[in-house]
């Protein structure tokens, strides 16, 4: 007789199998059940472990929607989970909009179209109107569509820059959220309605009745608006190497550059076509080591002015500049998200932008200084564009994870296409004056002090390790790091300073070698990582000491990583 827990697992798995609408996951689960019901063996034990991982809980819906590994079971992304999520969302939307429109986008990952189509079928059957985007397209096109079509909600099926085995389900709301990602209490309200869904057999699915939008209806207006972020009379002399990292950004970005009058970027051939297996990269994230190698190899042959990349759903943008002394030996240096964020801010200030400049608690404080000097309002939010987008009178927002919003009235989210155009405009303008993005970064350091940032990330297989590290830091907060005094230690779970409560810790430090320093520690909201965000600010009296200031900052950041790892036990 097997233990009760094992019997329960088998019961849940067989119940799931009986109502699973997808032949692929049915076959997968059938194989697992055959293995656990067979003779004891190493394969038998592995199958039990896998069954437990899939059926010992439920994938939770939150402000990031759903995201996880694909496969059968309630702890995986699959058609059954998506249909329940869509049914819960439909029930939530029908409180206010009996026949409201839900616009649905999807990327080129495995099952993305199936998840999008199932969502449309649930919405129509629930009495709502549904419209699918015309094909696999960038996330910012979906975010644009919610506002452009005055939709009640939008759904984007994507796992962004996660590994190939993952997929996700991101929700945007119209109305008071103005086409931005969901925030509390909407996430909890949707989650409650998802939890109330009973048997999948009780969720009606329409056979048709949804609309498939044409490119003329949605892509053309998006491209026209994206091209409008740049001055039609500004310089256009700029050569660019571009990689979409096997994602869906290429055609939209190339069309946007053409529409705006820039020369066509040279695409990295090996990574140009959408491919859900992402065969040339370990992780399809331009921040990950090795992801940009092919782009830099292409750049070595073409000698462009810039190298840029989108992540697979093209809501993020990476920028690299020529640097013969680059530590990676490629002759190209990736700019950090904070560096690009500051460059875009300085450019928008020069273009006389008005409104609020916003970023997050884990991003560089340089944006606050740029805004203050320009006489602009500044807002600091929790991590993620779901919070940045809520800043009052938002004109520009960015987060250090390569996300930039340069036109919030069109796309109230990060947009790697319009951001790429804005970076191109800035670089072309500087080039005409014989200057570079690096020169402008030097100017910012001389004006505001050198703001250097870095990260320490711990990727785990066991999520308990993250909780243990956070508990250790709460119980024994450090009093000094990298030879700097910890002046304050804030537990962000308590909220305060205008921020909602969140699982995070923030330390402010000072010492003779720097003007100030800051550390924020938090679990990632989308990946199994504990992330530590570091910033050091070093005063710069003149250009002659800029190199020394950078060396000082690099040394302090390295020491912060070492001491923080020791304090957190990782």
From TrEMBL:
PANTHER family, per the entry: PHOSPHOGLUCOMUTASE 2B-RELATED, PHOSPHOMANNOMUTASE 45A
Record flagged with keyword Metal-binding: yes
Record's protein name: Phospho-sugar mutase
InterPro entries hit by this protein: A-D-PHexomutase_a/b/a-I (IPR005844), A-D-PHexomutase_a/b/a-I/II/III (IPR016055), A-D-PHexomutase_a/b/a-II (IPR005845), A-D-PHexomutase_a/b/a-III (IPR005846), A-D-PHexomutase_C (IPR005843), A-D-PHexomutase_C_sf (IPR036900), A-D-PHexomutase_CS (IPR016066)
Obligatory cofactor(s): Mg(2+)
Ranges where the Alpha-D-phosphohexomutase C-terminal domain occurs: 517-542
UniProt GO MF annotations: isomerase activity
Keywords attached to this entry: Isomerase, Magnesium, Metal-binding, Phosphoprotein
